[in-house]
């Protein structure tokens, strides 16, 4: 699984961190998404899919 | 295909919005719910006799609230204002996080996001727990029955916003009273203006003080931006006021209404008391947020272009109303929506809205609710209403936030 985030679209709602905090973090200065792991392991796949699905700004894309 | 500009006869169109059923006061209004059985998009008539698109389906709400052709600009003619006072004052509204679109919205929002990130809110959990325990101690030491709203629901979010913004604790009563006044729909415009002015003056003075003596808080953050020339003092005052007001009634109402709802669902309440897994506790909060959807009166938008949507032709300048309770009770997204089920996967709810305007304070609200729901019913296992459920005075369906202004409880 490969994860791609769009910092321009991100609105810093924090939903991705809620869903998968091993994969996503928020930038100190303005809360914009920080991708911790571009290729998360299979056991995180469900959480990452949830993160993409709950992002209100549609800023997370998953390339299988 | 539905047509926007043919005016339907009065008796044929849905009048937004009908009242909740007093027998099921926590459920969305019956006619609104019935729309989930027919079409995801329909027409509705509002208080001034104008007709607008009503987007009720969960999937349709997601699509419309994240569509860049849809604007929040409340100065556009045809905007579906929630009520007359809002319509009358719209031309005076400065550009804020609420009514800005696109690049303007990004610029404003990014000045406000820093203090509300999930990691920062998580770090506040011990403080939220401490405030919650102290408020419950005080309530238990006081007379019975007690009003949960003044004992816990209102002071907790108020104390937290105080701490975050960096308002001295000794001023919190002034702060709480005026923030309350500024949002109360039963106050006159004059009373609200006076409260706003008092609050604005107070915050402006604090901002000036933080420019001299910065601390680790949001106001100092804004003060630094004033010094750097990114913000003017009036702009920073407005941002501070928005945070202060938006953070009060909403979280407070979720504490009050969540308690009333759980007391009516003893099996779910018993289940909640037993939860010790963090993820399960988080999910329980999401389900209560979904069920109550206290931002009840519909997000307001206006089409900035012509486009086809869900089989209807939306025209530039058409008003669009998105009643979040309807999406959160759409059986397609939440089977048997009337069932409060704390184990339901509910994270895709719209209680905090959807799209670029999704709630800025949601991570704070979530942790406040996780702490309160995880503490109150364990510490006070005999907690119950001190009046009949039928005696509770719910705010009407056209109040912006669904709430019970007073919740007498005993134990
Ligand atoms: C359970 C509590 C809360 C609920 C249910 C709630 C609900 C909402 C909803 C539905 C919106 C979307 C508005 C729209 O689409 O136009 C929103 C936006 C917002 N909320 Fe909350 N809210 C809560 C708590 C808070 C708190 C604690 C704060 C601040 C400390 C806050 C600050 C804001 C702000 C600033 C916005 C505007 C965001 C934007 O337009 O980009 N809210 N909230």
TrEMBL record, chain A:
Pfam families, sorted: Fer4_13
Cytoplasm: is it a keyword of this entry?
no
- Its name, as the record gives it, is Ferredoxin
What are the alphabetically sorted keywords of the record? 3Fe-4S, Electron transport, Iron, Iron-sulfur, Metal-binding, Transport
Q: Which organism is it from?
A: Streptomyces cylindrosporus
* Tagged with keyword Zinc: no
In UniProt terms, what function does this protein have? Answer: Ferredoxins are iron-sulfur proteins that transfer electrons in a wide variety of metabolic reactions.
Name the needed cofactors.
[3Fe-4S] cluster
TrEMBL record, chain B:
Enumerate the residue ranges of region (Disordered).
1-25
Name of a matching Pfam family = p450
Q: Name the keywords, alphabetized.
A: Heme, Iron, Metal-binding, Monooxygenase, Oxidoreductase
* Entries under CDD domains matching the protein: CYP105-like (cd11030)
Basic and acidic residues bias located where?
12-23
**PROSITE patterns in the record:** CYTOCHROME_P450 (PS00086)
Which Gene3D superfamilies does the record associate with it? Cytochrome P450
Q: Known PANTHER family for this protein?
A: CYTOCHROME P450 YJIB-RELATED, P450, PUTATIVE (EUROFUNG)-RELATED
- Homology family: Belongs to the cytochrome P450 family.
**What is the name attached to this protein's record?**
Cytochrome P450
Q: Which organism is it from?
A: Streptomyces cylindrosporus
């Amino acid at each position: 699984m490969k994860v791609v985030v769009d910092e321009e679209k991100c609105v810093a709602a924090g939903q991705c961190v809620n869903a998968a905090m091993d994969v996503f973090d928020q930038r100190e200065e303005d809360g914009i998404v920080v991708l911790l792991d571009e290729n998360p392991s299979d056991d995180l796949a469900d959480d990452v899919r949830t993160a993409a699905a709950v992002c209100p700004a549609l800023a997370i894309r998953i390339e299988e | 295909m539905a047509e926007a500009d043919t005016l339907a006869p009065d008796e044929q169109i849905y009048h937004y919005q009908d009242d909740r059923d007093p027998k099921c006061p926590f459920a969305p209004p019956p006619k609104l719910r019935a729309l989930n059985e027919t079409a995801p998009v329909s027409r509705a008539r509002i208080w001034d006799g104008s007709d607008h698109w009503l987007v009720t389906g969960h999937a349709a709400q997601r699509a419309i609230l994240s569509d860049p052709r849809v604007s929040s600009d409340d100065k556009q003619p045809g905007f579906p204002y929630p009520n007359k006072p809002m319509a009358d004052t719209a031309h005076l509204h400065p550009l804020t996080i609420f009514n800005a679109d696109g690049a303007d919205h990004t610029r404003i929002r990014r000045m406000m996001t820093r203090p509300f990130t999930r990691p920062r809110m998580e770090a506040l959990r011990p403080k939220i727990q401490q405030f919650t325990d102290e408020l419950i101690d005080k309530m238990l030491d006081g007379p019975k029955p007690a009003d949960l709203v003044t004992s816990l629901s209102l002071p907790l979010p108020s104390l937290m916003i105080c701490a975050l913004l960096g308002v001295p604790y000794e001023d919190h009563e002034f702060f709480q009273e005026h923030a309350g006044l500024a949002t109360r729909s039963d106050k006159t415009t004059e009373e609200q203006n006076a409260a706003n002015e008092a609050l604005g003056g107070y915050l402006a003075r604090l901002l000036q003080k933080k420019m001299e003596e910065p601390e680790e808080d949001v106001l100092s953050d804004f003060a630094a931006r004033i010094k750097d020339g990114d913000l003017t003092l009036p702009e920073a005052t407005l941002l501070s006021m928005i945070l202060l007001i938006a953070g009060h009634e909403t979280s407070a109402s979720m504490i009050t209404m969540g308690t009333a709802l759980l007391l009516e669902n003893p099996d779910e309440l018993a289940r909640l008391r037993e939860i010790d897994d963090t993820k399960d506790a988080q999910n329980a909060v999401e389900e209560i947020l979904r069920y109550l959807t206290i931002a009840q009166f519909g997000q307001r938008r206006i089409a900035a272009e012509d486009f086809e949507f869900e089989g209807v032709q939306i025209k530039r300048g058409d008003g669009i109303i998105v009643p979040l309770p309807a999406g959160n009770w759409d059986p397609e997204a939440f089977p048997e929506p009337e069932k409060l089920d704390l184990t339901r996967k509910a994270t895709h709810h719209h209680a905090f809205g959807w799209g670029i305007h999704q709630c800025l304070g949601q991570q704070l609200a979530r942790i406040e609710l996780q702490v309160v729901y995880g503490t109150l019913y364990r510490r006070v296992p005999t907690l119950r209403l001190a009046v009949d459920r039928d005696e509770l005075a719910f705010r009407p369906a056209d109040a912006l936030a669904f709430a019970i202004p007073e919740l007498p409880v005993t134990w």
